[in-house]
Amino acid sequence: MRTLVRLCWLLLGGLFIFSGLIKLNDPIGTAYKLEEYFEVFAQDFGSFFMVFHGMARTLSITLSSLEVVLGVALLLRWNLRTTLWSLLVLLVFFAFLTFYSAAFNKVTDCGCFGDFIKLKPWTSFFKDMFLLLLWAVVFFNQRYLRRVFAKGTLGTMYVTFALAVAVGIGVYALGHLPYFDFLPYKVGNDIGKLMQPAAPLRYKYIMEKGGTTQEFTEYPTDTLWKFKQMVALNPEDGPKITDFRVWGGEQEELTKEVLTGNKLLVIIQNTTKADRDRFPLINQLIAGADSSKKRITPMIITSSSPNEFDVFRHEVNLPGKYYFADATVLKSMIRSNPGFLLLQDGVVKGKYHYHDIPSRAKLEEAL
C-alpha cells in the first residue's frame, strides 16, 4: 500500500506541474479557451460570465501558475492537508468543465494540456476522474507521507520560488511568443503541404437494409441499402490545416498568392485590441521589407470588417493594401496582435511578436 500511495502522490503532483507548465507555455491560447467557456456559460446561465471574459489572460496565468505551485507543494509535502484540499477544489472545477463540455458538446477541446495533447471531451472528463482517484488514494492514506521534504520557512521559500518561476514563464510568453510552438503554423512547416492529405483518405460506409446495419469499405451497388454515415478510416492522414484562406476586398481568392514567393504577413487579428504604439516601427519594417533585395512582399491581413480596418489604418498611418482571413485562423497563426509571419513559398521561416519586431537584415537572414 505504501508503494501505491507514493506512486499516486508522484503522479498527481507531476501531472499538475506538467499541465500548468504546458498552459504557461502558451497563456494566450489558454486564455482563448477560457473565453470560449465564458461565452458558452453566458449563453446558458446569463451574461454575468462575460465579466470574466476580459480577465481571461490574467486568469490564464493565475490558474496555470496555481497548478504548478500546488504540484510542487504536494511533492514537497508542504502543508499536505491544505494542499490536498486546494487540489480538490481545482479538480472538481476542471471535472465540471470537462463534463459540461462532453455532456452538452459545448467546447470540443478542454485545453487541459494546451495544443500539445488534444483530448476529446469525454477523454478529458475521464482524465479528471483518474486524477480524482489519485487524489482520494493520497488523501485517505496520508499516514504514508508523513515525512515533509521542506518544513517551515524553507518550504515557504521553495513554494514562493515555484510561484515566481511559474508566473515569470507565463508573463514572458504572454509578452513574446510561446517557447514551444505546437500549432500547425510553426517555423519550418509548409502551409501548402499541410493543407493536403498526407495519404489518400479511406472511408467505410454504414448502410441499413431491413432493420440491419452493416459496414462496407466500398459503396454497395445494391440500391436497397440505405446510406446512414460515412466514416474516415485514416483521419490522421487528413490535412492538418483545413481552414486557411485569404481573400481581398472583392472576395477574390488570394491564398495561392500568399503561399508563393517571399511574403511578410503582417497579421492584425482585430483593430480593437491591437497595440497601436508599435505602428511607427511596424511601418518602418513594411517599408524596409518592400525595398529588400530578396523581394519580400508585405501583406497586411486582418479579420476586422473593411470599414473598421479602413478607419484603423488611417489612424496608425499603415501603408499598402490589406486582405482578410478568418479570426480563428489568425489566432492560430500567431499569438500576437499585431504579429508577423515570414513565408518562403508557403514555408514558415520566421514568427515575430510585436515586442520583437525584426529588422530587414534579420528577415533576409531567415530566408
Average pLDDT level: 88
Question: Level of helix content?
Answer: 40-55%
Q: What kind of sheet is the major sheet? A: 5 strands, mixed
Along the chain, the helix and strand elements come as HHHHHHHEEEHEHEHEHEEH
What's the alpha carbon Rg, rounded to whole Å? 25 Å
Which strand order do you get reading across the main beta sheet? Answer: 6-5-4-7-8
Which stretches are poorly predicted, pLDDT < 50 over at least 5 residues? none
Give the strand content.
Answer: 5-15%
Number of helices: 12
Overall shape: it is globular
Chain oligomer state: single chain
In whole angstroms, how far apart are the ends? 59 Å
Q: Which structural class should the secondary elements be placed in?
A: alpha/beta
Total number of domains: 3
Give me the count of strands. Answer: 8
Protein name: DoxX family protein
Subcellular location: Membrane
Membrane topology: Multi-pass membrane protein
Keywords: Membrane, Transmembrane, Transmembrane helix
Mind explaining what this structure looks like?
The chain is of the alpha/beta class and 367 residues long. It has three domains: 174 residues, no CATH class; 35 residues, no CATH class; 112 residues, Glutaredoxin. Helices cover 48% and strands 13% of the residues. The chain contains twelve helices and eight strands. A five-stranded mixed beta sheet has the order 6-5-4-7-8. Helix 1 runs antiparallel to helix 3 and helix 1 packs parallel to helix 6. The radius of gyration is 25 Å and the shape is globular. The relative contact order is 0.10.
